[in-house]
Structure formats: C-alpha cells, structure tokens
Amino acid sequence: MEYYQHYCSWMYDRTFPGRRGLKPHFVEGVHGFISWAWGQEVCQNEGGIRCPCLKCACRYIKTDPNEVKKHLEKVGFMPDYWVWIYNGKQFQNFGVGVNAQASSSGINADDNEQFNMMNNMVADALGVELSYNDDVEDEQGEEPPNEQAQRFYQLLSECNVPLFEGCTQSKLSMCVRLLAHKVNYGVADKGVDEITEMLLDVTPFKDNLPKTYYDTERLVMKLGLKVDKIDCCINGCMLFYDNEFGKNDGALVECKFCESPRYRLTKSGRIPNKTMFYLPIIPRLQRLFASMKTASHMTWHHSNKIPGVMRHPSNGEAWKHFDEEYPDFAADPRNV
After folding, report:
1. pLDDT tops 90 at residue 291
2. What is the C-alpha radius of gyration for the chain, rounded to an integer number of angstroms?
3. Would you say 299 and 333 are in contact if contact means Cβ atoms under 8 Å apart?
C-alpha cells in the first residue's frame, strides 16, 4: 500500500494555499487517471467511469469523461482511494506516477498541506465550498448555502488570505494557533498580547496579524461555536437560567432551595458566587452532520449493526430501552 501512496500522492494535493488554483500535477494526474480508466475493460463493460470524487465515491457511473474531470477538480478524490479497484486496477498493476507528498489523512503533512487541510475542514464543516472557480456548475443539484453559511463564507474569504505572498499561514490559522498555545501552556491574556506584539515588531506584513488576545478570540468566536456562562447556586442546587421548558429562574437573586445568595458584593459591583460554562450541543452536532468527513460516523451505529456483538453504546440496554420508549425517534439514523 505504501507503494501506491507514494506514487498517487498527487490525488490528495489538489490546490494551492487558500484554494487559489489547481496544482499542475493534480491536473495532469486527473487527465492520466481518466485516460487510463476509460481504456479498462470494466469501464467499457459498464459504459462509463465510476466517478471517484468525494461526493460520488464510485457509486455513480459517468458516461462523460469531462463530468468526472469537473467533479474531481471541484471536490477532489474520495478518501484513501490509492488503488483504483472500482475502475479496474489491481494491487500488482500500477500506472500513473508523480512526486510523493502527504496522504489524504494529513499524516506527515508539511505546513503547506496543513494550511490546505484547515481551509478544507472549515469549509466542509460550514457546508460551503471555497471554490477557486465559480464557473464550475454544481452537478449534484444541491441547494445554495443559506444566509448563515453565506456569512461564514464571507468571513473565511477575508480571513483565509495568506499573510503574505507564499506564506502558508492565514490570519485565521494564526489566531487558532495562538489560542491553542494559550490553552496548552496556560498563558495569561497579557502573555498572548505580548506574543502578538512581538510578531508585529518583527514582520513588515502587519495587516492580517491579530493585534491582541481580544482580537484573536473575537475572530475565532465568529465560527459560531460559542460558550455560554450560566450563574449557579454556590451549593450546586440549581441554575439561574431561563429555558424553553418553563423554568424562568434567570431573574432570581437567591437559590429557591437553600436560599444562598446568587451574588456577592465587591468594590466594582456585584458578581456571581459561582458560574459554569456551557457548550451548546446543537451547533456542534450541526457541524458534525454538515461535514462529509464526520457525517457517516454520526450514523455508524445505525448502519453497522451486528446482532450479539457489543461495539457501540447503541448495543447497550439503556440505549435499547430508550429506542423502545421513543420508536419514532429511534427510526431516524441521526438519533444521536
């Protein structure tokens, strides 16, 4: 398999940073693949090429080679298609050869490939295609992005521009790296401010760099995965929170169970005695289902059942009991 990965690495090295165009070896490789596949006996018998693009995944036969070419140039190859078995290739036979780089999974990828992967992952999770070519038609007949996706598209278009010509980093990737550094090493907010100040001092390209920790955090928060702060009883009795189930506890100033005060007085005013951080699950589930890389995993428990084998929490008694209580919900493969 390493032999095939070495010579087919062009398949997963499609665009330049920022999706500014197709790489020449990818275009050449696609042309070679189509020419080779069109001459194979299995393709001649089926009357066309099984399109190995990310969306078709060799499930559909295309009679027009140009249609396969458009699909591959727009969304790239399906994952791990190193050996073209659906189009007639065997392990011992090998045709196209180009320079080796990184695998589709990103293992051993260089900085340039990591930048491409960030663009691809974010665009995929948002349900939009950061295409370099607006003239390529959507052959799948998909609906256009909604208003929320359009706002993300605009954000990413602005923030994913390389810091300078030839740079493998963008403003967004730098912000993500700064926040990761802060969390991994426990850096204070002022410490991040000093790091950004040093970066600005040593580079002539200042326009796209974040200037403070606040700027960094604000940009990343625009991705939509927010965190809510909720006041709670100091003894853990309740949350001071209004919800859709009729509990209007957000205005209370003391616990309705133990009567402990919600706030304490300080020189700067009153502050909550205890606060919890809540990560809303719905936006995160939406991202998981929107991404083609993770959506199939979200329904794995439904499509990979083996009677008598424990492989997933869905095989447990608690999950089965819940399915019995709510059969309509259980019938939906997305019922995580």
Report:
1. no
2. 26
3. yes
Rounded to whole angstroms, how far apart are CA atoms 149 and 133?
18
Listed in sequence order, the residues at least 6 apart from 325 whose beta carbon sits closer than 8 Å to its beta carbon are: none
Lowest mean pLDDT among 38-42, 67-71, 287-291, 308-312: 287-291
Say how far apart CA 298 and CA 310 lie, in whole Å.
17
How far is residue 156's CA from residue 288's CA, in Å, rounded to a whole number? 19
Between CA 85 and CA 100 the distance in angstroms is 21
Q: How far apart are CA 218 and CA 224, in angstroms?
A: 11
pLDDT tens figures, 149-200? 666 666 666 666 778 777 778 888 888 889 889 988 999 999 999 999 998 9
For residue 37, the one-letter residue type is A
The band of 322, judged by pLDDT with boundaries at 50, 70 and 90, is: very high
Higher pLDDT, 21 or 91: 21
Indicate whether this model's pTM tops 0.85. no
Take residue 151 and report the two structure tokens written for it: 């706002």
Using DSSP, state whether 270 is helix, strand or coil. Answer: strand
Give the pLDDT confidence score for residue 321 in this predicted structure. Answer: 93
Confirm if 168 and 111 have CB atoms less than 8 A apart.
Answer: yes
> Residue 171: what pLDDT?
82
Exposed / middle / buried, residue 268 (Cβ in 10 Å: 0-12, 13-18, 19+): exposed
H-assigned helices in 8-64: 24-38, 41-46
Can you read off the two tokens belonging to residue 82?
């190193």
**Could you tell me whether strands 228-231 and 269-272 are parallel, antiparallel, or unpaired per DSSP bridges?**
unpaired
267's tokens? 């020189």
Dihedral of the CA atoms 302, 305, 310, 316 (nearest 10)? Answer: 40
| DSSP secondary structure letter of residue 231 | E
> What phi-psi label fits residue 120: left (phi over 0), alpha (psi between -120 and 50 degrees) or beta?
alpha
What's the CA gap between 299 and 256, in Å, rounded? 41
Which residue's entry shows tokens 């424990």?
A: 310
Please state, in angstroms and rounded to a whole number, the distance separating the CA atoms of residues 240 and 253.
8
Q: In this structure, are residues 264 and 271 in contact, taking their beta carbons and an 8 Å threshold?
A: yes
